[in-house]
Design a protein that fits this description.
With 219 residues, the protein is mainly alpha-helical. It is built from nine helices and no strands.
């Protein structure tokens, strides 16, 4: 991706995130919560393909095969690249999840009104006390307060960018598959639209950053 296009992509996503938070996230989440009987099963199924363990297993297995048995260094490095981008993007996602502390759409179930980020709450307190409450809340309910960004979307878009870089002729296919799988996190009411968008940004950028370091080995 050229620098100007990449800069435009980043700027567009960063502008879209607050817009989505203010005007789209709640309405979309409430729709899928109200229609869980229609969408949740499909969302749960598609979400399986966004779990990082599949990509870790593929990367490690492929690396071992092509490094020690098939003896193809190019392919070994390509599988190593897949491993690196999943580690890097996963770490970034984990750090951001715990920093922002966003409650999942579950807070809107049954007429609930819990919505927002721990990071932007309790500013009337001292900074030390604020972050004590922040991290104690995460410790008590880590899954509930780790919605932003979506880890599944991060993994999916890291893999899609990986395939785009290696097989650019099929780039629109990779993009379509990534959007389809990421949308599952809306269907099963585990994430908001802005969570998925942020995950797409993290996964894409993490892969591009690793690519600049390793492109000579994987071309």
């Amino acid at each position: 991706m050229k620098n100007k296009k990449l800069s435009l992509f980043i700027a567009t996503v960063l502008l879209f995130l607050p817009f989505s938070y203010l005007y789209l996230d709640r309405a979309i989440a409430e729709y899928f919560l109200a229609n869980a009987s229609i969408y949740e099963s499909l969302g749960d199924f598609l979400s399986i393909f966004g779990e990082s363990n599949w990509y870790f297993a593929t990367a490690i297995g492929g690396f071992i095969i092509f490094r020690f048995f098939k003896k193809n260094e190019l392919y070994a490095q390509r599988f190593a690249f897949l491993l690196y981008i999943n580690l890097f993007s996963g770490l970034l996602s984990l750090v951001l999840k715990n920093l922002f502390g966003r409650i999942r759409p579950w807070g809107l179930r049954n007429g609930g009104d819990e919505y927002g980020f721990l990071l932007f709450q309790n500013f009337d307190m001292g900074i030390v006390e604020k972050f004590k409450i922040h991290f104690s809340t995460l410790a008590d309910a880590a899954t509930t307060y780790t919605s932003f960004p979506s880890g599944h979307a991060t993994t999916i878009f890291a893999a899609a960018t990986y395939l785009w870089l290696l097989f650019p002729k099929q780039r629109y296919l990779w993009l379509f598959i990534a959007l389809l799988l990421a949308s599952a996190r809306l269907m099963d009411s585990d994430h908001f639209l802005s969570d998925i968008t942020a995950g797409a940004l993290v996964g894409t950028l993490a892969t591009l950053i690793m690519y600049t370091k390793l492109k000579e080995k994987i071309r």
